[in-house]
């Protein structure tokens, strides 16, 4: 007998799984204003592109979790043929409007609808942290990348946004911040392959709390896991959060732990 979701006891739904429908919806809604606020993504993506020294890396690029296609376009400007892939239809149609890539594919990076060995480079900037299983994602990237090709990815690691998490702990017991993998777990996921990883901390500084929170909303970072519960942001909660927020010379700091990975596809 087939079970439907309504047959399942709600308490037994795995609350640690990411809610992909919610992620696609949140990013889709953020598409129009995304590039204006996604300064961190632009910095990490540029850094990731520079991790490849040689121009001789082949022509077919997959931009996995392409968002607005900001980096699809950067690769196109380098003369590459680019497949832009994203879970969010809203992001893809934005990328299409900008003619950011050559092909557009709505899909899930944990289950790519692409043939084995079909791209030369798989590029993925700050997208894999939204997935359930990093090893599964890397396996998929490895499967679709040709022998001798490259996988370039960046992701967030544990410790990212700790300032905001600390402040929320003073307000309620809900989880407000995505849970990011420890650096060692990311390194372990790369172990099956010849690889190189680098870790860097990026700091952002805001004069007020509201623009800080908006910067997270702007990147669609608010809809996360099944079971996430979060009270409404009333004026009272906002001022309590602001009072609890760790500050530096009166400024609100937000730190990101970024991991950059290069995987060499020796097959
Ligand atoms: C933080 S944005 C980064 C976008 C782009 N790579 C950039 O550098 O600007 C993350 C993107 O990953 C997409 N995404 C999240 N989970 C995904 C999945 N499982 N499969 C494909 N795309 C996904 C989101 O829809 C979003 O567009």
From TrEMBL:
Family annotation (SUPFAM superfamilies): S-adenosyl-L-methionine-dependent methyltransferases
Span of domain Methyltransferase type: 62-153
UniProt-listed CDD domains: AdoMet_MTases (cd02440)
Pfam families: Methyltransf_11 (PF08241)
Keywords on record: Biotin biosynthesis, Methyltransferase, S-adenosyl-L-methionine, Transferase
Entry EC no(s): 2.1.1.197
Any GO MF annotation of the entry: S-adenosylmethionine-dependent methyltransferase activity
Keyword Transferase on entry: yes
Reactions the enzyme catalyzes: malonyl-[ACP] + S-adenosyl-L-methionine = malonyl-[ACP] methyl ester + S-adenosyl-L-homocysteine
Protein's pathway: Cofactor biosynthesis; biotin biosynthesis
Keyword S-adenosyl-L-methionine: yes
One GO term of the biological process aspect: methylation
Function statement: Converts the free carboxyl group of a malonyl-thioester to its methyl ester by transfer of a methyl group from S-adenosyl-L-methionine (SAM). It allows to synthesize pimeloyl-ACP via the fatty acid synthetic pathway.
Cross-referenced PANTHER family: ARGININE-HYDROXYLASE NDUFAF5, MITOCHONDRIAL
Family: Belongs to the methyltransferase superfamily.
Protein name per Swiss-Prot or TrEMBL: Malonyl-[acyl-carrier protein] O-methyltransferase
Species of the source: Xenorhabdus innexi
Gene that this sequence comes from: bioC
């Amino acid at each position: 007998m087939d079970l439907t979701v309504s047959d399942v006891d709600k308490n037994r739904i795995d609350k640690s799984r990411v809610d992909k429908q919610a992620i696609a919806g949140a990013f889709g809604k953020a598409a129009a204003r995304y590039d204006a606020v996604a300064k961190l993504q632009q910095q990490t993506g540029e850094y990731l592109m520079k991790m490849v020294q040689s121009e001789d890396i082949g022509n077919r690029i997959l931009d996995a979790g392409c968002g607005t296609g900001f980096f699809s376009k950067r690769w196109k400007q380098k003369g590459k043929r680019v497949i832009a892939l994203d879970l969010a239809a809203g992001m893809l149609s934005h990328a299409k409007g900008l003619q950011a890539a050559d092909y557009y594919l709505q899909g899930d990076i944990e289950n790519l609808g692409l043939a084995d060995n079909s791209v030369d480079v798989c590029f993925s900037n700050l997208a894999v942290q939204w997935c359930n299983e990093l090893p599964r994602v890397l396996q998929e990237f490895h499967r679709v990348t040709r022998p001798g090709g490259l996988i370039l990815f960046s992701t967030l690691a544990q410790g990212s946004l700790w300032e905001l998490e600390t402040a929320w702990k003073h307000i309620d017991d809900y989880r407000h911040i995505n849970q990011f993998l420890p650096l060692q777990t990311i390194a372990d996921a790369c172990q099956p392959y010849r690889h190189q990883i680098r870790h860097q901390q990026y700091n952002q500084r805001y004069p007020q709390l509201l623009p800080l929170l908006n910067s997270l909303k702007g990147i669609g970072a608010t809809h996360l896991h099944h079971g996430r519960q979060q009270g409404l942001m009333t004026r009272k909660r906002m001022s309590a959060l602001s009072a609890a927020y760790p500050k530096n010379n009166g400024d609100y700091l937000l730190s990101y732990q970024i991991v950059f990975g290069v995987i060499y596809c020796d097959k």
